[in-house]
Write a structure and sequence with these properties.
single chain, mainly alpha, Fumarase C, Chain A, domain 2, two-stranded antiparallel sheet, 19 helices, elongated
Length: 431
């Protein structure tokens, strides 16, 4: 999904031209290492450096015959280099090149996504402090629970994003390995020093032990980290979808000039961005499952993972990049309606204070069970008859035996619920 929400560098990262360039970078690094080990003459290395290149269309043409992409690449490369191409790919197997190049691509993709997460975190922090003291109703099961502030929602998402950032950093580190140990990982046709030299040139670590491939739990860890980041975006998107419902309407996605919400109903302003992101998260999650399936291969290697990875790794990195950038834009320009939040809180007629009433009664000596029953009875009557909860309590003789009118009114003080907001913000954002 290449769009205005996708960073240009992410879209270009997975284009065939760049993939083949990474293969060439790996092959050239191997040639440099072979030369350092005295196995490629300096004159030949200079020719390789000078002439090395490839033609994407020619690779495609050759592959139609040989049915092998690396051989097609090497054939095109040899057509550029000439006789000195006999030193290229010396002692290597295809996966030495392909897996190491894939590590480079995945590391670059991780760096882009890490930058995306940081951008999202900036907006989340800004909005958290903007609405730090804006009261709204907290809900559980979709039902009014107790008051909170709208800023706490953003603070929560910021903390989620911090964990996503750490996961992507760890995943990027996990995948930053190269492999140059030959056909089944035994270094049968390459010296062990070669792997160290090539990986150092590429900024990678050697895979401590490999078969013919870099082990796929690394890729699964990376894909799972992407899935968790995508799930974090979906978590925000789902909340925004609920908040934009007509009956709630406490926040609303930006609706730009000329935008239309429905082909049939001109009044519609739908949370299409958040719905889009909720759907895309399902794709990234399912791709993580496919990556887990790729871990187990026959013996030292088969290629059942290869066809899967050609789809899921580019798709998931591009989708996650898209999701993060689109959500950042939605949150930056989010329409927020504090007056509607206040009206919604009043809709339940003060019932959100029920726990405080019950706890105050227990402090006066009532058992929790008796206090619960007394408060619940008043709460249900208030709800069913549409009566103000405080007024209902003030009329109850059993309540009056325990609490004065002043004590009842003090229970309904909104500041009580918000007194620890600073404490929470300091834990999330620091001093």
């Amino acid at each position: 999904m290449i769009s205005r929400y996708t960073r240009p560098e992410m879209g270009k990262l997975w284009e065939p031209e760049n993939r083949f360039q990474k293969w060439l970078d790996v092959e050239l690094a191997a040639c440099e290492a072979w030369h350092e080990l005295g196995q490629i003459p300096g004159e030949a290395l200079e020719v390789i450096r000078k002439k090395a290149g490839f033609d994407t269309a020619r690779i495609d043409e050759i592959e139609k015959t040989v049915k092998h992409d690396v051989i097609a690449f090497l054939t095109s490369l040899s057509e550029f280099i000439g006789p000195e191409s006999r030193f290229v790919h010396k002692g290597l197997t295809s996966s030495d090149v392909v897996d190491t190049a894939l590590s480079l691509l995945m590391r670059e993709a991780a760096e882009i996504i890490i930058a995306d997460i940081r951008d999202l975190m900036e907006v989340l922090k800004e909005q958290a402090f903007r609405y730090k003291q804006t009261p709204c109703m907290g809900r559980s099961h979709g039902i009014h629970a107790e008051p909170m502030t709208f800023g706490l929602k953003f603070a929560l998402w910021y903390e989620d994003a911090k964990r996503g950032l750490r996961r992507m950093q760890t995943a990027g580190e996990a995948i930053s390995v190269g492999k140059f140990s030959g056909a089944v990982g035994t270094f049968s046709n390459v010296p062990t020093e070669l792997e160290e030299l090539v990986c150092a040139r590429l900024g990678l670590r050697p895979e401590p032990i490999a078969t013919q491939v870099v082990q796929r739990d690394r890729h699964a860890e990376y894909m799972t980290a992407l899935a968790l980041v995508a799930a974090g975006v979906e978590k925000i998107a789902l909340e925004l979808r609920h908040l934009q419902r007509t009956e709630v309407l406490e926040a609303e996605e930006p609706f730009t000039k000329g935008q239309k919400g429905s082909s049939a109903m001109p009044h519609k302003r739908n949370p299409v961005g958040s719905e889009n992101l909720s759907g895309l998260a399902r794709v990234v999650r399912s791709n993580a499952l496919a990556a887990l399936e790729d871990i187990a291969l026959w013996h030292e290697r088969d290629i059942s993972h290869s066809s899967v990875e050609r789809i899921i790794i580019p798709d998931s990195t591009i989708l996650t990049d898209y999701m993060l950038n689109r959500m950042t834009g939605i949150l930056r320009d989010l329409n927020v309606y504090p007056e509607r939040m206040k009206a919604n809180m009043e809709h339940s007629r003060g019932l959100h204070n029920s726990q405080r009433v019950m706890l105050t009664l227990t402090e006066k000596g009532m058992t929790r069970e008796d206090a619960y029953a007394l408060v619940q009875g008043n709460a249900m009557q208030s709800w069913q008859e549409g009566k103000d909860f405080m007024g209902q309590l003030l009329k109850d003789k059993d309540i009056s035996k325990q609490l004065t009118e002043k004590e009842v009114r003090e229970i309904f003080d909104m500041d009580y619920y918000l007194r620890n907001i600073d404490f929470i913000f300091k834990r999330v954002f620091g001093q």
